[in-house]
Structures are given as structure tokens and as C-alpha cells.
Amino acid sequence: MILRALCTCKVVSVQETQLTVTDIDALDESPLLDINPYSRQFDVAEMTDDES
């Protein structure tokens, strides 16, 4: 079984091959398969009550 998800997150740091992010809906040490930039023109991210 392969589980995949799509979510937005904040990039905290990039060090060689290690990417550190916050505000992501994933388990610790989960592999990131693909990362893409967020564009307000094409993407829509809903804010939760604690983010507004």
C-alpha cells in the first residue's frame, strides 16, 4: 500500500540534502517525494482558525 498526500508547509532551512519544514501534516521522518513552490495565482491554501 502506498499512501500519498498533498499539503503546504513552511521551509525553515536547507542544509545540503536536508530540508527542514514546519506546519506539515506528516509523521516525523516521513520522506518528501516532491516539493513545489506555492503560487497565489494558481494555488489555494485554506487557513485554519488558529492561522487567521
Topology of this protein?
Layout (H helix, E strand, L loop, with lengths): L9 E6 L2 E5 L30
Antiparallel strand pairs: 1-2
Largest sheet: 2 strands, antiparallel
- Main sheet: strand order: 1-2
Instruction: State the helix count.
Output: 0
List the helices and strands in order: EE
In helices, the fraction of residues equals under 10%
**Binned strand content:** 15-25%
Total number of β-strand segments? 2
Distance between the termini: 36 Å
Please state the overall shape, judged from the principal axes of the Cα atoms: globular
Oligomer category: single chain
User: Quick check: average pLDDT?
Assistant: 78
Q: Which runs of at least 5 residues are low in confidence (pLDDT < 50)?
A: none
Radius of gyration from the CA trace? 13 Å
- What class do helices, strands and sheet pairing give? mainly beta
